[in-house]
Structures are given as C-alpha cells and as structure tokens.
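Much of our argument rests on the idea that a fold can be written as discrete symbols. The amino acid sequence and the backbone structure tokens for this protein are reproduced below:

___
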Amino acid sequence: MHRLTTAFLYAFIADGLLSMADLLGRRGAPGQMPNFFAAVVSFAVLILGLVLFFGMILTPRLSKRLLLPPLGFLGFCLLWGLLYGQRGMLPISAAEALLGLGLVAGFWNAQGGGIQDFTSSRPRFTLRNFFGTGLLNGFLGVALVGLLILGTAQKLRGKLEDSTGRYVTIQPGGILLEERRFQHDGKEIRLISMIHVAKNGFYDEIARALPAGSKAVVLLEGISDRNGYLRGKLDYSNAAHLLGFTSQQQSTFTEKAVKGLAASREAEEKNVPAPAVPPLEYRSADVDTAEFHSTTVQWIQAFGNVIQSANFQEALAKYSQSRQTFAQGTESVCTDLLDKRNEHLLGEIRKALDAHTMVVVPWGARHMPALQKEIESWGFVETERVRREAVRFENKTLVGFLACMERMPGSAAP
C-alpha cells in the first residue's frame, strides 16, 4: 500500500507536468511523443486513483488525509474536461503538479527519505473503517457520477442547441423552437424552425400564425421521389404515437399546407387571373431523391424503416440490422440532406422574393443557421423572434434534472 500510494503521488505530479508541457507544445509545434506520454500517465493516474479510492474502504492503512485531496482533484478535472474540454486546462495542470508536490513535501519523512508510512501500525481491516469509509467514498462516488451525468447531458444539450443556432432550446419545462423574422428593402423572410414530432398545439399555433396573403408565399419542405427510390414516403406517425405526440404529417399545419399547395398548383395550371387580394401561396421548395448519392438513399430507406416500427423493441432490432448503413457514407448523407437542400432552397427564396413581399420558410431547425447566414449576407436584418413550445416535459424527475443542468457552470442563458 505504501509503494502504491507513493507511485500514485509521483504519477499525479508527472501527469500535471506532462499535461502542462503538452498544452504549451500545442501552442507551437506539438510532437507526438509528449502527447503519447501525457496520455499514458493520465490513464495510469486514473487507474491507480480508482484502486486507492476503493482500497480505502478495505484497509485503514491508506491515509485519507493524503489521498482524498488528489482523488477529489481528479474528479474535478474529469468534470471540467467534460464541460469545457481543453479550455483553462493549463492552470489546472499547474495546480495538479503543485498539489502533488505539496502533498509529497508535507508527508515526507526526512529520516526515512520517503513518503511517511504513518499508518503501517494500524490493523489491516476494521469494520469501522469498512462501513465509515465505504459510506464516505460511496457518497463521493455517487456525487461524482451524478455530476458526470449532468455534465454529459449538458454537453449534448449544448451540441444540439449550437448545431441549430439555438433555433432549438431545451429548458426545464420543455423543448422550444424559434421563428426569426428578417426584413430588407420592403421584403420580409420568416424562418420557422420545425420538428417532425411534437405536441399538437405546436402545429396549430404555426398554422394560425401564417400570413393570410398580401403577396406572401410558403416554401414547403419535403423531398420528392419521382423515380420511386424510397419505396414509400417517410412516415413518422408510429414514432409520434409511441411518444404520445402528433406527427407533422398528421397536423393541422400539414393539412393546411397540402390544401394550399393543391390550390396554388391548380391556379397555375389553369392560368386564372390573379385576384385583387391574392391568397397565401404555397410552393414545394425541396429537392428530388434523384439528386442524392446512392448511400444517402439507402440511409433514408433504413431510417424510414426504423421510425415506422410498431414499438421500441422493434425499432432497436431494425436499427441493429442497419448499423452498417447508418455508419457508411456519413459525409455524403450530410452533404445531400443539408448542404444540397439548403442550396436549392436559397435559390427558391431568391426567386420568391422577386414576386412576393413575404417569404415563409417552415423547415427543420438544423437548416436554419446556414439559411440565416446567407440571407443576412443579402442585407436582411433580424427584426423579431417568436418562441413556441414543441414538447412539454410532464415528468417531475426530468424537469428537476433539467433544472439542475440550468444551474451548472457553462449553461447557456435562455
């Protein structure tokens, strides 16, 4: 135990020093060897720390005064790295090395020339230490695991919100989706972030918020499949039913859009004269599957197969069968489903602006950051934001969990 403790403290100091050298090296021209040694030593410190953490329960010979400070520091480093990555790690690495040196100096035995083994006279095992330290370490372990779970959830939440430009935000009460309005030279563009499955009131609210007319057009999302590559359309109704929500395909918004699209096409085909007050026009503004890479079509087919499952068990089984399809062609899938569709949509927005004073774009939230960046480059300026609740969290445990996330360091302001 004495040698294990000594090895841990020396490795703890080395980990701090090597991490400092590694971080400083990355600012210039980092080499491979410092990175490799830093990773190996960090892993060794973690393994030794876990052994000693549980070892304190089994024997009172391990000094808690000596070991709890560095073990607590390791837990802090794990949480910090999860929340902030490498940001601020240089002073933390310096503090790690100084803490280790301070502990070694404080427990150094001048006569023996090593770390003082002042617990060797204690018994190897006592029930008092077993239960007392077990409760202490159990509490610390559960607290750390809880913080790590919160940190992981916070990071995933941040990634989701960042990837959508915060058109989607997750709050303790539920999931909010945002509409942003932009104006330039007497024209207006409304970017309305959408979701395939939500509470019914979300779609009702959007349907009511659509302009009545006045030279306005709604550019609809929805990949066409004229060549029949997909063997049917993507249907979210089963997934919506399992979650207790409404599918966008079965919502009042989609019903209104389908009727409006049919009316717009009929007026165009019959070439009827425009009325004095034109109704709200609907247009399909998406691409066709013929423009996609073959791996993208396979990915959509596999995804559609999963979401049409009758239950979660069937969905997991189908996902497992299609794992290779989901793993391959990630780059082409992202390019087709995001970049290619955005490029096509932006062309439709430009054409619509020639004949309309208002363009409404109710598309998936993931498309919005790129669309906003482009239309702002055209001179459009944001004038208004409207938030709508897409999902309400009724579970009190989940609401409490998200409320804790709100209080964590690094949580973004709503």
